[in-house]
Design brief:
alpha/beta; 5-stranded mixed β-sheet; about 30% helix; about 20% strand; globular
């Protein structure tokens, strides 16, 4: 179980937020019709949704490693690999050489009193892998276009922590949902890190990274 004081906040500075938007444009290629308004609206939503995911991926890389620049380089390398294979993407591997998949969602309410622990970490069956760790990130919708993007890293869950059966009805139908309040607090478990990454892992307990 996790409490609100264990949520970790990563603030992406203006250059990092720009990087997120550049990677979003690279990821969202093709299918851009300028004829129909509904198609334009779908493209806009696709860009926003992808930017939310990109911000979460960059945030978890920055959060994991001692040196911020090392985390940014890890993110860039991961995205370059995914962009080189657009039909395969990153296969859910959001930190290279690990079994870590970050699921970042939008908080649509503008209220800061919104309880982040009432959200769910949702994994679709085609994205679910045994032995992997899934991380929940949340971003306020109105902040995804800000010069500095704030990413709230809520917590993580191992594949064994999820329900055995997919949800059959309601908002999370055909997915594996896990309530945020049932997640494990950061840091991520030590066994995730390969030998080449271990020297770079952050050892301190710093909770808020603001730049």
């Amino acid at each position: 179980m996790i409490n609100r004081n264990q949520i970790v906040q990563v603030v992406l500075d203006s250059s990092e937020s720009l990087l997120v938007r550049q990677m979003t444009l690279l990821a969202c290629t093709g299918g851009k019709s300028q004829i129909f308004q509904d198609q334009q609206e779908r493209n806009k939503r696709r860009l926003i949704d992808n930017a939310v995911g990109q911000a979460g991926e960059l945030a978890i890389n920055i959060l994991a490693f001692q040196e911020r620049d090392f985390g940014k380089t890890m993110y860039i390398n991961s995205r370059n690999k995914a962009n080189a294979n657009p039909h395969l993407g990153d296969d859910g591997m959001d930190i290279l050489d690990t079994h870590i998949d970050v699921k970042t969602s939008m908080i649509r309410s503008s209220s800061r009193s919104q309880d982040m622990l009432s959200y769910n970490l949702v994994v679709r069956p085609q994205e679910f892998k045994e032995g992997w760790v899934y991380v929940l990130g949340l971003i306020y919708q109105k902040e995804i276009t800000d010069p500095k993007i704030v990413v709230n890293i809520i917590g993580w869950a191992h594949s064994d922590d999820f329900p055995d059966e997919i949800e059959t009805q309601g908002l999370f139908k055909n997915t594996f949902p896990l309530r945020a309040s049932n997640l494990n607090p950061l840091p991520l478990p030590d066994y995730l890190w390969s030998s080449n990454l271990r020297p770079h892992i952050k050892k301190n307990s710093e909770k808020v990274l603001t730049f």
